[in-house]
Each structure stands twice: as structure tokens, then as C-alpha cells.
UniProtKB/TrEMBL annotation:
Transmembrane segments: none
Highest taxon in the source lineage: Bacteria
The organism of origin for this protein: Methyloceanibacter caenitepidi
The entry's keywords: Signal
Pfam families assigned to the protein according to its UniProt record, in alphabetical order: Polyketide_cyc2
InterPro entries named in the record: Polyketide_cyclase/dehydratase, START-like_dom_sf
Signal peptide annotation: 1-22
Protein's recorded name: MxaD protein
């Protein structure tokens, strides 16, 4: 093999590998659920207001919204530890006791996620109680190839998991009173 062909082979191999190394972040998924010894209608009553997150998530200082529970409604969630997130409601299905929303304006210093889409749903369980399922598809705060430890996939998943678990545990306490 001539030196030219050898060099060209290496260039072609490097060009083929480069796009794979520069793909950026992959979506992460978080799903948390909790069993609640209360009828679904009672649990739904506590979570059904899109801008009512402050009433059942202890990590939220305030939650203010516009548009009620209609698609396109918006809310600003101020976190107890500082920072705020702006979400918009994509779908609200009262009959199915669920709604889906997305992050419009992140605060990556306070919450290391650049984007998420999430669904909250209340389902009946076999014992007359409820199961609440809260899931999200999300991207880390730093969407570059080499994120810091505070803005990588693990930090994003941990932040959302912590937020969801705190909310679900408080919701369980309130619903079972």
C-alpha cells in the first residue's frame, strides 16, 4: 500500500468516527410512582391544577400560572432553593386524570436540565386506592460533549428524581389524611 493510500484510509476512518463522537446528549428518562391509599378522585383533586404544584411539592416555593388547565397554559415554578422554571401545558385530559407539559425556560444553575417533557397521571389500583405516575424525558443542562459533573446526565436525572419523589411523598401524606 502506498503512503498516499495509507494516509487516505486513515483520513476516511477518522471522518467516519468524528460524527459519532460529536453527537451530543441522549435523552434520559425518569419515572417515579407511588401507591396512595385514597380513591383516585381524591388524589386527582389535589394534583389537577397545573399551576397548583406548590400545594403538594415541598421543593416549590411558589407556582403561578396563566391559562388554567387548557393546552397552552403556562406556569412559573419558583424553587425553594432558588431558581425558577417556566413550563407550558401540552395536554390536559380530565377524564383520564392526566396532563402533559414541557419545560420552556430552564434555570440550569438551579436545576441542571435544559429541557423536559413530562406527564403526571393518577390511576386506580386493585385495592380501591391510587397509583400516581410521574414521568419525564429530559436532557442534561450542558448539551456539549463533555459536561461538568454538575450538569451531566446523572445530575439531571438526580434533580428530576429528587423533585418527583419529594412531590409524590408529600402528595401521599396529604391524600391519606
Amino acid at each position: 500500500m502506498t503512503l498516499f493510500r495509507y494516509a487516505m484510509l486513515h483520513v476516511l476512518l477518522l471522518l467516519g468516527i468524528a460524527p459519532a463522537a460529536a453527537h451530543g446528549p441522549t435523552p434520559q428518562k425518569v419515572e417515579e410512582s407511588i401507591a396512595i391509599a385514597a380513591p383516585p378522585a381524591k388524589v386527582w383533586e389535589l394534583v389537577k391544577d397545573f399551576d397548583g404544584l406548590v400545594s403538594w411539592n415541598p421543593l416549590v416555593e411558589t407556582s403561578m400560572g396563566t391559562g388554567g388547565n387548557e393546552a397552552g397554559a403556562e406556569r412559573t415554578v419558583v424553587l425553594r432553593d432558588g431558581g425558577q422554571l417556566k413550563d407550558s401545558l401540552d395536554e390536559y385530559v380530565e377524564a383520564e386524570m392526566s396532563y402533559s407539559y414541557r419545560l420552556d425556560t430552564p434555570d440550569i444553575q438551579a436545576f441542571p436540565v435544559s429541557f423536559y417533557s413530562a406527564t403526571l397521571a393518577v390511576k386506580p389500583d386493585a385495592d380501591g386506592g391510587s397509583e400516581v405516575i410521574w414521568d419525564a424525558r429530559l436532557y442534561r443542562a450542558d448539551t456539549g460533549n463533555f459536561p461538568s459533573e454538575t450538569q451531566n446526565d446523572a445530575a439531571a436525572v438526580d434533580a428530576v428524581t429528587t423533585f418527583y419523589k419529594a412531590g409524590l411523598e408529600e402528595l401521599k401524606k396529604k391524600a391519606e389524611q
